[in-house]
Amino acid sequence: AYSEKVMDHFANPRNVGEIENADGVGEVGNSKCGDIMKMYIKVDNDIITDVKFKTFGCGAAIATSSMATELIKGKSINDALKLTNKAVMEALDGLPPVKVHCSVLAEQAIKAAVSDYYKRR
Amino acid sequence: AYSEKVMDHFANPRNVGEIENADGVGEVGNSKCGDIMKMYIKVDNDIITDVKFKTFGCGAAIATSSMATELIKGKSINDALKLTNKAVMEALDGLPPVKVHCSVLAEQAIKAAVSDYYKRR
Ligand code: FES
């Protein structure tokens, strides 16, 4: 039921972990299933030079976060803020409808990390 | 928010994988979050000699399945059928209420694997 890309990013998630001395950290929770997602960004000259995530969430949350971090790494903060969960799901060749709420976690965590970055400056 | 035992079984899950030529295979789905769990058992003389699981589910599903497989390995089929998700959660020093539905997946998957075992005989 899951696309090959979803299974690949689930089995070999990119950018899992923490960043010490991150410039922004976002933590969001999912009211539907109770899962949490933590996103760390390193920012240089408005460019996201590094990003890592940690989650207790399911395979769909792992796959969408993995893809989302790949999509914003090396991009400007403005581009990162424009990334929607819909675009991430498309990059993964889709997700079952029941799993759409898991992809929202990644989008929200990126926005929370950026807002934390702005707050710190 | 999660106990040390939950985090241990999440980070180092026991008995993850598949069993080739399993004597029983159970697959169950969780209507609440859409996650699935697959459980494989090897049975010898009514004793569960090996058990493995695979899931796309969240950290709580991984931790409860890891603990559940430890609890039924080497036990009789009858004992395995008596294992409740409540007992598994207690063995893990508890789970947040929002995550109780994830622990149900392991109990149901064990029962499905045993029922598949009986069906095959
Ligand atoms: S949220 Fe689906 S198994 Fe835990």
Strand order of the largest sheet of chain A: 1-2-3
Helix content of chain A: 40-55%
Radius of gyration of chain A: 13 Å
Provide the low-confidence segments of chain A as ranges: none
- Provide the structure class of chain A: alpha+beta
Instruction: Report the bound ligands by name, code or SMILES.
Output: FE2/S2 (inorganic) cluster
For the record, give the distance between the C-alpha atoms at the N and C termini of chain A, rounded to a whole number. Answer: 44 Å
Main beta sheet of chain A: 3 strands, antiparallel
Instruction: Average the pLDDT over all residues of chain A and give the rounded result.
Output: 94
Count all strands of chain A and give the number: 3
Order of helices and strands of chain A: HEEEHHHH
Largest binding interface between chains: A-B, 16 and 16 residues
Beta-strand portion of chain A reads: 15-25%
Q: What is the assembly state of the chains in this entry?
A: homodimer
- Global morphology of chain A: globular
The total count of helices of chain A amounts to 5
Domain NIF system FeS cluster assembly NifU N-terminal (chains A, B): 1-121
GO molecular function (chains A, B): iron ion binding; iron-sulfur cluster binding
Protein name (chains A, B): NifU-like protein
GO biological process, one term (chains A, B): iron-sulfur cluster assembly
